Amino acid sequence: MKIKVCPVCLSPRIRRSSSFDGWLIPVTYVCEECGYRGPVYLEIEVDEEGG
Ligand SMILES: [Zn+2]
User: Fold this and answer.
1) Ligand 1 centroid from CA 11, angstroms
2) Is the pTM of the predicted complex or chain greater than 0.90?
3) Staple 11 to which of 16, 26, 33, 50, CB 3.0 to 4.6 Å?
4) What is the pLDDT along the chain (51 residues), one digit of tens a residue?
5) How remote is the CA of residue 50 from the centroid of ligand 1, in Å?
């Protein structure tokens, strides 16, 4: 499966800065790890643990 990660520190603790769907303002992602804010995120492929 793929998960979103921070493009700066590669932390998976990245979330959308707004609870809105972004039809009025561009979607911004915020990294809770390094404080990155921006419209860009990375997607990486990971193996699902357990099951
Ligand atoms: Zn980060």
Assistant:
1) 5
2) no
3) 33
4) 999 999 999 999 999 887 666 567 778 899 999 999 999 999 999 887 766
5) 26
